[in-house]
Model the fold of this input.
Amino acid sequence: MKFLVNLAVSAARMGVGAALLILAAGIPAYFFECDRRTVAAAGEGTPSPLDIAGIYLDASKISTASLIAKESGTFGEISEAVEKQYSAHPQWVAAGGNEPFFEAYYSSVPETPARMSPAPLYSVLAASDSRKKLLDFLAQADSGLVKKFISMRGMNPAIFPPVYSSAGAPLEAALLINALMAQAGDFDRRFLLDIASIMDLSEKSPEKKEEFEKYCLATLAFAKGYDWTIVRSIFSHFSSAGEAYGFARVYESAPTRDYKNVLLAGMFECGSPSMCSRYLDGADPRRWEDFRYAFLHGEGALAFLLESGSPIYSDSAFARFLSPVCSPIKEALAPYVAKFPAAALSAKVALAVIGGYFFIRGFLRIFQPERDTPSWHSPLALARGLLEALAAALVFFLLAEPNAFAANSVENAPAPELRFAFEKVINTIGEETMNFETDTATIAAVALFFVLQLTVYVFCLIRLSMIKRIKAPAKLKMQLLENEETLFDLGLYIGLGGTVFSLILLTMGIVTASLMAAYASTLFGILFTALVKTMHVRRYKRRLLLEAASE
Done:
């Protein structure tokens, strides 16, 4: 009867623990990833890609609106309006929209069959005659910034061939494009201060000259792929020349043209080039797809993903097993997690720890019905319960979010420096970079081994405390102490076993943590075993020897 009661109590505890762990698994919050449902929920009630495209279309920035709509799959909804505007204003086709300054220049270019067709801006300026006509048009401007850009044609560049050389077309085109944007009033106030300072100091400072030339590279990166309206729309978002270059660097590193378009469409949606660059710098295709997913679900979804800086969560085998139960919970909680991600993660950790405590205590009670501590609230019992709960919670998170604790065998390098092929010269900028990435797999493994050894340490203290509480002669206590000698070495055995097991997993490629994690198991075993035997067992044995001598 006593056995059945104990079994029922144990089963009840395990049931409560399992229920809390399932509830924790149903909260769509993660340490290093974002849940797909949470990202989508963050976009609810915020402007969609179609809304953003509509704003640009209303401003007669037709090519920009078309780019956003095409990448979101909603171009069919604005195609009629696009055709209507182009039919009413055929002169807008070459520029991509209503662009008075560009039209004023372009009207001086000789008419050809291709003149009124959409074309990348750089191809328009590739011919020396086209650049000469744009220079003549800009020379009439009174703007000081326009004149500064034009005056930079006489600079002695370090990256580009000089403007006056036979290969000087790219640099001259970049300078004229920026002069035309300055004339159109496209630049942000912070950008104006930054670029003016860079140009003023470029003659005296090689660093500033290189920074300016990198900015010109960024200009060409977009001009060689898009028309005037899109280029204008891009540069109006930059707050510094460095931000423009960083964004262009990530743009050029995109695996395909589709991803480049998605990057621009996403930047138009969220309005922050720096956040897009930070998220996609050195990104693999999965991360680009995550960016696309957030972009499709609206401005709020993309902002949530970029602020988190995390990839979208892919269900683990454990999550797929619990999916029938957890999916409805995740759907219901996603909007709240999107609003309070930190609080949701804290609640998940708390539920996992409490659930782990009930589950592991219930499981161990089946095999050890008798209490081995004075009471459930004694310091040793509480310490052991906490450590067991932490170990169970750690295993739970390793099962629920394994990708976050898996170190990449090949680290993602930052996006490469920009390259631009000139007619006679290819100039590249090389820069040594070091990529520091936190090895979460190693940290998780070391933490697991530490918690295991700490649990064994507390268990040894409980066994030692039991011997101390026994009312028996000192000689009998010494014999009991010698009988537990193997138990006091348990930490060393577990440490060695953990190292061997880890090395096997590393050799087979099942886990990708560093060797430090494997050897940490033995190190912790040695340290905790030495602590038990030196600080606790040895002292108590000395006391027993003195008591035995006086008996």
Q: What stands out?
A: The two ends are 44 Å apart (CA to CA).
